[in-house]
Specification:
mainly beta, 21 strands, 42% strand, disordered N terminus
Amino acid sequence: MLAALTMVSSSLGTTRRVPTQFPTIQSAMQASATSGDTVLVNPGTYHEKIDFLGKEIVLRSLGGAEVTTIDAAGVGGSVLLLVGVGERARVIGFTIKHGTGTQWFGSTLGGGLHVREGSGDGPLISDNLITDNSATGGGGIYADGPAQILRNRIVNNSSNWKGGGIWCQRRVVVSNNE
C-alpha cells in the first residue's frame, strides 16, 4: 500500500512555493527536478527573468496578473524563456514586463516570452498581461514551434522588425487574446 501511495505522489510532481520556500522564481525552477512539478508564486513583483531549463513545469500565480508581476527591468533578456518544452509546461496568471528579448541568429526575439523547439502542442501561455516589452522581433511574444497562447492581454509591446505584440511561426494556436 505504501509503495502505491509513493508512486501516485511522485507521479503528480512536487509543488514549490515562492517566496515562502524559495526566494526567487528561478531558484524554484532550478530545484524542480522533473517535469510535472508546479511552481506557485504569491502576489508581488519579482525582478528576474525565468528560464524553464527545458522542463515541463507549471508556473502559476496565486493571485492573478493583477497582483503578480515578473519584471525584467535592468536584468535584460526575455522575461520567460521556454525552449524545448511541451504541453505540460504552463505560464498562468502573471503580468510580464520589461523584457528585451533573447539573442537568436543575430536578432533579439521575444521580449516578454521566447518559445521555440517544443514538443506536442507546446506550452500553454494563458491569462497573463504581457506589456512594456521590446525586441527586434516579437516584442511581446516570439513563438517558433508549437505553443498555445490563450486568453492573454498583450498591449504596449514594441518591435522594430516583426510582431510588436506577437510573432508566431509553425504550429502556434492563438485564441481569445486581447
